[in-house]
Amino acid sequence: MSSVEVVYGEGWCAVRRAVIGPMSEEEARRRHTAGDPYAVLLRAGGRPLAELRIAGRSGYVGLLPFDAHGRRHQEYDYVELRRGQLHLRCHRQWLYPTPDEAERSEQAAHFTLTIEADGRTRRSLDHRGLFETSTHLSAEHRSLPLADFGEWTGYVDADRLGLPGPLALVPAPAPETDGQPDGAPLWSPPAPLAPGHLEALFVPGSRFPSGDEPVTVLEPEAAGSLRLPTGRVIVADPTVLSASDEPLTVSVPPGTYPLMLGKVEIRSEWDGEEMTWEEITAAMLVVGDRRPAATWQLGLRPGQESRLLGDRQYYGFGVDSGTGAFLDIAARDALVADRDTGADLAAAVGGEVTCPEFRDPASGANAIAFPSGAGDGSYPVWIGRDHDGEVTCLIADMLTVDSRRPLPPTEKSTAVVLTSPAPPAEAPPLAAAPPAETALLFAELLAQTVAMARRTPPRQG
């Protein structure tokens, strides 16, 4: 049996090599119950073995084992996809060239596994270039039951820590006193992209930062009326739209709704002369009577899971032609039947009319194309709801301005981001592999990836 001390606090500081903001077990338990973040350090003989990061409200558990030199050399990011059941969203490893290399230095090779809910996994190795490939991860290596407070051996066992088993967890003799939080938090759970003050993008006179100079919102431009016979909305580039593209999971009542374009005026100086031009910032489908949004929710398509998103990540619609379009699913097949139709629609954007239209006589639906702001890329769609939960608008944000930081005299929104609690598990949780077995599998995947990368010249990234 091995005795392992448990220390609670805000987190581990690699510079001070100590727990910052130590707290009692009672305080950690209180945070656990409230869903507030806290950290757990497991150590033996004064040597750190693993750090656990817990944020119940975000459904997040992080495991960061230490190497023999006191560096956190791996990271396991778990999220609660189903109630009481954790899914491994991401795994990272750092390969340090020397024993005294600083933790997570740029000299260390960086290996990442990014795992989808169905086990599809992207492998990447970042070392003197970027090499990527894919694999599939079985359920027993990507799933864990959510442990109760204090049951930390559910996340890391004796074999994983390199100790004779079983483990006996004992509280640290007394709360440590090394340092206190002094500014930014040591860690935070993954925070996907959050919407800014989106409706202000359609209020003339609002101002936002963008590049070197602030920009001013102009009068929004009417882009036409979108006919939605089914209310199932697709937002996509019309030139790459396919018959397999699915609508957003949130639908609206069938009907006809106005589409508006948000625009800003940009001023800049070039070669001693002041230049002024307009740029599209967003396209808004107005549903109902323009009630202000009380909540925002990221638009998703079937199979997408917002809990799997990392910091500043989002699901969006891809653009290859500088053009986006709103349409009902009833118009999809007619639009993709002739590939030239989508290309013609994109070519007409900004011509005689800013937003050209495609009509499907058979269904009565149409598609309205619009310029995608700065051009190609991927752009999120946000769903606004009123206080009763009814959809008020859909906004495709072109991300051309930072709408999170409005400047005076912009009226700030009080809307909040809507997040859904983890749904109940549809079946009993699968038996998870012992942590040491999963660690061994990941070491094998790393070795395979390194060997493949040596045979394939990596691309720069």
UniProtKB/TrEMBL annotation:
Name of the protein: DUF4241 domain-containing protein
Top-level taxon of the source organism: Bacteria
Pfam family, one: DUF4241
